[in-house]
């Protein structure tokens, strides 16, 4: 199974990208959601890195995630702050709510974890159908360049108790037709020089062209598509941008 975000992967995510860490995205989403009235949904909410500051700012936001382990971190972070944790275990492919949302957000390129185009299109349609008329989808995609570079060196994190966590990434396949990469993410948990646990995450991602994704949004029923680079809303992306954001509406 791909993109599982198991025990060690979730632990590393929470050490590397804890609540409070922003890549400019927390501020951007806060700004883009300022006028949204009503509940907001964050699919693939993870450890609550984005959800928690949005809740703290007074927005009514809830989320879902496929990983029990990621949701546990999110619940803990909300608990520590006495925030209402409306998060459930659901997937992009099958999530369902009996209400409409004033906005749906997908930061951190999480949509690229969907690597099959038919299923990605069906998920966009599902987002569309879960929005109130006139409500918006705001999401980020990582640009093609971030996929094709060489995998970095071994990364390491020290846990609270002094244990060591390491991550070694190896790209095992790049499919230029399907626009996907498959990497082996090998996580290791060490204590006093002994290996306690290891975990292999088969990590698959898809890259999208900017025009391609705008068209897919339109085909899913969205209108008023705005594409922006590096969190400068309305500024068309250019080749050196590190993040590309899309905003689109369900017709009123
Ligand atoms: C990069 S993290 C993003 C977490 C959070 N949104 C953030 O901005 O920090 C991606 C998340 O997607 C979740 N995920 C992966 N595949 C999924 C799927 N099919 N349905 C729902 N969530 C999924 C993972 O469990 C993980 O928590």
From TrEMBL:
Keyword Transferase in record: yes
GO biological process: methylation
Protein name in UniProt: Methyltransferase domain-containing protein
InterPro entries associated with the record: Methyltransf_25, SAM-dependent_MTases_sf
Methyltransferase domain sequence ranges: 40-134
The keyword DNA-binding belongs to this UniProt entry's keyword annotation: no
A Pfam entry, by short name: Methyltransf_25
Entry GO MF terms: methyltransferase activity
Coiled coil (residue ranges): none
Keywords: Methyltransferase, Transferase
Biological source species: Bosea minatitlanensis
